[in-house]
Amino acid sequence: MIALGIVLLALTLIGLCPVGIWVQFDRGALALRVKVGPLGIRILPKKPSRAGKPPSAGKRMRLAKAQARQKEKWEKKWAKTQARLEKKAQKPGKKLDISFIRSLIPVGLRFLGGLRRKLYLPELTVYLCMGGADAAAQAVGYGRAWAILGAAAPVLENTFRIGKRDLQAVLDWSVTSTECFVRAEVRIRVGGVVYLALRAGVEFLKAMAKNKKKAVQTT
């Protein structure tokens, strides 16, 4: 009984754990992290490799042999896959069931709608700095930037749940070109993803069973 309670507690904690992606774009430099709870795993930029001692001749030979074995293994697997695909292509294919595909469209739309409602953006920051040598072109670009941000803000707020939102356009005469700064974070709880996947799976199985029943009745 205690073990069952521990398992249920662990599953509850995992379900409540948020996972997400943090991304930042600043003057052409992209930074990307995968976040699991309070932890962040850096994906970009990659850490610079430490310069170590060059591998010995024996180590290089063992590495070359391992790579050759791996290459031979993949070539055999690819040859089997090609033979299986050619054999399958020679068989008469089944007709595409349009009605079954049409019945899956609402399932996919409900899944995407539920996913959209469960996504949370703790932060969304967008700065557009308008620069250039032509003052008139800068002023026109500045007005267009505010028009784009003003149109995008209500769409984003109606589509996602956003915590801190900061969308701004800046006019800087000292900058020679237009610069963009974007920082955003997207989170979703593991339990929400599992729930949506299970619900979509059940609806898919129901649609498949209904399609099979309909096929049996027509034959």
Protein model, in words:
This protein is α+β, with helices and mostly antiparallel strands and about 220 residues long. Helices cover about 55% and strands about 25% of the residues. It is built from 5 helices and 6 strands, in the order H-E-E-E-H-H-E-H-E-E-H. It has helices spanning about 1-15, 55-90, 100-120, 135-160, 190-219, and strands at about 20-25, 30-35, 40-45, 120-130, 160-170, 180-190. It has a 6-stranded mixed sheet with strand order 3-2-1-6-4-5. Strand 2 (about 30-35) and strand 3 (about 40-45) form a beta hairpin. Helix 1 (about 1-15) packs across helix 5 and helix 3 (about 100-120) runs antiparallel to helix 5. It is extended, with a radius of gyration of 27 Å.
Shape: extended
Gap from first CA to last CA: 52 Å
Compressed to H and E, one letter per element, the order equals HEEEHHEHEEH
State the secondary-structure class: alpha+beta
Average pLDDT over all residues: 84
Number of helices: 5
